[in-house]
Amino acid sequence: MSQNIGRSILRRGRVTPNTPAGGAAASAVTVTGIVSPAGARVETAWGLTNTTPPDTGWGAATNGGGLAETWTRNTTRPAAGTWWLWARRTDWPRTVGVAVAPTVVT
Questions:
Q1: What band does 99 get if pLDDT is binned at 50, 70 and 90?
Q2: How far, in Å, CA of 80 to CA of 26, rounded?
Q3: Is it true that the peptide bond before 20 is cis, omega within 30 degrees of 0?
Q4: Which of 102, 96, 100, 103 is nearest to 44 (CA)?
Q5: Is-contact 94 53, C-beta < 8 A?
């Protein structure tokens, strides 16, 4: 039964961003995560909540390869506050993920 569930998840696809370290506003940071299936394109953006993806600020990440691909994006931290890193696949079906914890920017 678990094999069927795993296959279903891979077929549907997923994108998962890691929680970036906090730091100073406007400072450089490399954000990372995983995506499946392999070859799926990913974009990331900073959002103020973990319930609604941001409308703007999305930028392309670079895929690293492998069955459950890793991805990275060099970006800058937003203004001071508590932020959530969002990631989305840009192909169909479009899937969206959010980091499990916020990033505090000072």
A1: very high
A2: 9
A3: no
A4: 96
A5: no
